[in-house]
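*** Query protein ***
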Amino acid sequence: MSPSPTDPTAAPNERQGLEEFLDYYRAVLRRKVEGLASADLNRHVGASPLTLGGIIKHLSLVEEQWFVEDILDQELSEPWASIDWKADPDWDFESAAEDTPDYLLRLHAKACEQSREILAGIDDLDTFVAHERSSGDRFNVRWVLIHMIEEYARHVGHADLIRESIDGATGD
């Protein structure tokens, strides 16, 4: 496994702290899947169908949904754009079984880099996302960062359990 992710700064300003914690969890997730074969990325624990491959593909989608679709109000790119999400709402989780570890890691790296670039172009965390939901709700960029940290933290917890069941590896 790669070295431990860099711990966030002990006394950051708000933006620095949010960005560093998000990058920390991105790195922890990648560390959980690095070095595993496709079969390992498709394993699940107990009754849950959740897999490491599904988690990394899902979080790649979540990156693009929040940063491209919501913040910029632009269309999703492939592989997401042509999916009928109403007919197959778990496509991101389930289709990962067909993907190689290298593809999943590249997909995630691309999504994260794109998100960082978008965020770098936003000066104020109070900026509202461009996409207005049908409910009328509009989130600010601060909320998006907090949500992304929550989303990663939850799924990294799942990844901890799955990875430990594969080869006993523990830790961040």
Residues 141-167 form the longest helix (27 residues). The mean pLDDT is 94. The two ends are 10 Å apart (CA to CA).
